[in-house]
Structure to design on (920 residues):
């Protein structure tokens, strides 16, 4: 049975700020650095994901999804972590029959995640 | 023993910059000295040379050298210094029973599932540095809104070593599952914020590594069936004994672990299958033949393990047949010493390169280039051989060698031709003097004079010398060449009659001609010379023995491959050719002799002068034809001359009418730098009725013409003279008396005049050496033609 990633299935918020700060032992500067790193890496990783998706390269999709998931779990990007886990699991099963909407779900989640993270970076200065 | 954190150096490895930063910072906050690396390769290099880590923390999934191989290397004999260094593996992919198994597989000391709490990382690091192996705890999450039940379960699980936590709502449960991996989830069906089956779906989706057990007070059997279908591992009806639930949990965890092992096996099988498909595709798409053979203990080739389609096509065997055949002859060494040498080199790991002839199934011999080396396949020693078909390469090399040889021969012919032509030119001037004077002397002598016999011998010798000179000119390509339509059959018939009379008694000359021979455009004199020279050569090859010469003519279609086996054929197009063939059953020739037969002055015959075949070649070249020679010692020789067939419009010439008696009149100016030629020419001209004036060079000729402008009816002008050559003199004379007929004369052929002399005064060409009759005929033609056109 195909498990299709779908943003509406996520009960939790896409970004868990508390989880990030807990991971960083409440070190705000570290949290900021992690978010900046995460966002900087996210753009090329999404580009790689789209390219692999459109060429049907299952191995590449699995690898990029795994990389995004690991980083997302680290910074509390739970939505991205969940969606990429679904993708990774499906790839492991050899299932690669999702419609284009699945990738769109990841794209929407990424926009939402980026937006929330940028709010934190702007509104909660690292040095305060 | 407690390790001072500040002194303990920790190497952390993760390709993801975010995680690497987090691990690095957390460990630094814990007071450790940390060395972060974004690849295992870089970390290995550093720990070999610079850092002595007390702990290594690594991710599993990394490009290049992944965590599995990194850990195995650290525990291998290649890295003895790190065999006992504690290793902590962190991964988001595995948890619970899987994590234990992977830790054991890798020889690691601890495992953390990501995400983890900072305290878990620091605590684990401290334990490892203190020489302790942390116990992997099993997390259980109890989702139950009744406090009594949840409290009881938390205590019971904790008593069995679990890290147990309880939440009251579905949303709390989901949140907790996302934050930390749970090995076991006990889920109440009736929750305040979400139906239990919906939560079950979500948990199964978001925590695929967790074993979920449903609990309910609802007795309906169909509920249990539905949960199991949705992914629950087990269910319990309230009230139940906590020990029973814990036992169920243990069983469910074992099942999940087993399932994961199977999944991983399936993944690995699929990966291997895909990898095999990739290699199979590569193996089958290599453009060369590939053979894999088992290598036996004695170094000989064993059975064939694998071949590709190219190998099957190359040798013409079906795959199955090739796999079951004994080792192919390509690897059979020439002798025992070579076998030992090849085997030794293979076993040393040397890549061998050598050439062999393979025999295909249909018996064809195929030249191949073989690259072979030893390698290990599935734990056994094998030899892989790449076999490249060299047929085309060898053919190309042979063609290149042949073309180079042809070019070399042409160059040699060209340079020898220049020499021969030069000699012939000077020789002809001398012969002209001899023959002309002999002729004049014979005319003056009384019929019974004893000197007549001597002069006739001089004449005979001079004519033989003239023939030699003619052969040299033909060879050099400077002979007079006047093509006309004719058939080789007619020339062969005519010549066979003449040549038979001069043939030794024991040699029979047989003629075989086409009934409808093709017409060619050729110089009949040269063709006669070719027939004569080839038949004479054949007779000399037979020597004093009895033998037969066959003179054969006909027409044949020649393709490019056939023409490539001939002399002088590099520019000839494939098509129809008339041929003249002379074959003998004489001694034949070896390849060394064959290579030189057309060289001038090369001869194997006692009586020959070595110019006959050279002249044949020159003649064939003038006709833009080719010549093919087939010969072997003791098997006779066959020369086949190929000449292009003329266009259909051309018709073979009929014999020319006999010359009428004619006497000259008027004055002829003879210009030649050779005094003997001038003297002879003057006497010949006077003998046939002309008044003759002579000049030794251009200025003298101009002066004579100026002085006798109205008397001189014709000029005979030598082409090659010092100071002013014939062309310049021609122009000077035409200025003095425009339109005066000038007959050019040379020991070279008429082509040497072409391009040098043009204009209305050009009256034709007279080949040296000439005799009185030829001079008379030429002058008559010229003067009659000019008289007819009103030019004089």
């Amino acid at each position: 049975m195909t498990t299709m990633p779908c943003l509406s299935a996520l009960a939790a918020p896409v970004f868990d700020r508390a989880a990030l700060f807990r991971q960083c032992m409440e070190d705000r500067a570290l949290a900021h650095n992690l978010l900046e790193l995460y966002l900087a890496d996210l753009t090329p990783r999404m580009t790689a994901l789209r390219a692999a998706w459109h060429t049907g390269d299952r191995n590449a999709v699995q690898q990029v999804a795994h990389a995004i998931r690991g980083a997302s779990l680290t910074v509390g990007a739970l939505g991205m972590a969940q969606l990429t886990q679904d993708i990774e699991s499906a790839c492991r099963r050899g299932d690669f029959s999702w419609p284009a909407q699945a990738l769109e779900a990841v794209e929407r989640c990424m926009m939402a995640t980026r937006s929330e993270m940028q709010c934190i970076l702007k509104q909660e200065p690292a040095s305060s | 023993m407690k390790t001072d954190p500040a002194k303990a150096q920790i190497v952390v490895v993760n390709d993801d910059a975010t995680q690497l930063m987090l691990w690095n910072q957390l460990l630094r906050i814990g007071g450790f000295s940390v060395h972060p690396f974004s690849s295992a390769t870089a970390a290995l290099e550093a720990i070999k040379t610079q850092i002595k880590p007390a702990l290594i923390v690594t991710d599993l999934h990394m490009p290049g050298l992944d965590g599995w191989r990194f850990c195995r290397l650290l525990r291998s004999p290649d890295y003895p210094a790190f065999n006992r260094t504690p290793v902590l593996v962190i991964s988001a992919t595995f948890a619970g029973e899987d994590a234990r198994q992977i830790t054991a597989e890798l020889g690691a000391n601890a495992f953390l599932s990501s995400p983890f709490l900072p305290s878990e990382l620091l605590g684990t690091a401290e334990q490892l540095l203190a020489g302790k192996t942390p116990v992997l705890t099993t997390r259980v999450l109890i989702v139950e809104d009744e406090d009594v039940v949840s409290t009881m379960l938390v205590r019971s699980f904790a008593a069995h070593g679990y890290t147990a936590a309880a939440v009251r709502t579905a949303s709390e449960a989901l949140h907790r599952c996302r934050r930390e991996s749970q090995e076991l989830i006990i889920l109440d069906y009736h929750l305040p914020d979400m139906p239990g089956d919906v939560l079950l779906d979500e948990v199964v989706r978001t925590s695929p590594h967790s074993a979920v057990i449903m609990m309910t007070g609802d007795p309906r059997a169909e509920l249990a069936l539905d949960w199991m279908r949705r992914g629950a591992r087990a269910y319990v009806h309230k009230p139940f004994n906590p020990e029973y639930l814990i036992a169920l949990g243990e069983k469910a965890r074992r099942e999940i672990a087993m399932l994961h092992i199977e999944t991983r096996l399936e993944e690995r099988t699929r990966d291997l299958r895909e990898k095999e498909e990739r290699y199979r595709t590569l193996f089958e798409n290599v453009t060369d033949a590939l053979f894999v053979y088992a290598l036996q203990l004695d170094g000989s080739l064993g059975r064939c393990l694998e071949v590709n389609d190219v190998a099957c096509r190359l040798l013409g065997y079906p795959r199955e047949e090739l796999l079951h055949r004994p080792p192919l002859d390509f690897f059979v060494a020439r002798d025992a010493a070579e076998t030992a040498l090849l085997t030794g080199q293979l076993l040393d790991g040397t890549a061998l390169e050598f050439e062999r002839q393979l025999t295909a199934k249909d018996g064809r011999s195929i030249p191949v280039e073989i690259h072979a080396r030893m390698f290990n396949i599935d734990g056994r020693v094998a030899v892989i051989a790449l076999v490249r078909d060299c047929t085309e390469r060898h053919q190309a090399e042979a063609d290149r060698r042949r073309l180079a040889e042809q070019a070399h021969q042409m160059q040699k012919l060209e340079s020898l031709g220049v020499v021969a032509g030069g000699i012939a030119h000077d020789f002809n001037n001398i012969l002209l003097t001899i023959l002309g004077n002999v002729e004049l002397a014979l005319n003056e002598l009384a019929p019974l004079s004893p000197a007549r016999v001597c002069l006739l011998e001089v004449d005979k010798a001079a004519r033989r010398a003239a023939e030699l000179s003619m052969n040299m000119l033909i060879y050099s390509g400077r002979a007079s060449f006047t093509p006309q339509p004719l058939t080789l059959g007619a020339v062969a018939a005519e010549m066979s009659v003449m040549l038979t009379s001069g043939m030794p008694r024991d040699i029979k000359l047989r003629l075989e001609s086409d009934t409808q021979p093709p017409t060619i455009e050729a110089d009949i004199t040269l063709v006669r010379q070719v027939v004569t020279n080839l038949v004479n050569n054949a007779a000399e090859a037979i020597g004093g023995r009895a033998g037969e010469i066959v003179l054969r003519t006909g027409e044949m279609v020649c393709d490019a491959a056939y023409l490539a086996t001939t002399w002088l054929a590099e520019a000839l197009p494939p098509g129809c050719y008339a041929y003249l063939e002379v074959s003998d059953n004489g001694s034949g020739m070896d390849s060394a002799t064959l290579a030189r037969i057309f060289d001038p002055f090369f001869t194997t015959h006692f009586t020959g002068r070595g110019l006959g075949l050279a002249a044949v070649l020159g003649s064939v070249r003038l006709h833009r034809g080719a010549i093919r020679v087939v010969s072997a010692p003791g098997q006779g020789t066959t020369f086949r001359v190929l000449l292009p067939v003329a266009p259909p419009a051309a018709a073979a010439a009929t014999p020319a009418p006999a010359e009428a008696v004619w006497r000259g009149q008027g004055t002829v100016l003879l210009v030649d730098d050779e005094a003997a030629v001038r003297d002879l020419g003057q006497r010949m001209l006077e003998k046939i009725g002309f008044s003759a004036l002579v000049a030794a060079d251009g200025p003298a000729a101009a002066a004579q013409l100026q002085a006798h402008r109205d008397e001189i009816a014709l000029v005979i002008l030598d082409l090659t003279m010092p100071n002013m050559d014939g062309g310049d003199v021609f122009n000077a004379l035409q200025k003095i008396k425009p339109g005066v007929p000038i007959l050019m004369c040379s020991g070279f052929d008429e082509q040497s005049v072409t391009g040098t002399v043009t204009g209305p005064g050009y009256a034709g060409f007279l080949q040296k050496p000439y005799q009185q009759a030829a001079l008379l005929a030429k002058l008559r033609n010229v003067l009659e033609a000019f008289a007819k056109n009103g030019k004089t």
Remarks:
- The helical segments of chain A are 17-23, 28-55, 58-75, 78-93, 100-123.
- The radius of gyration of chain A is 15 Å.
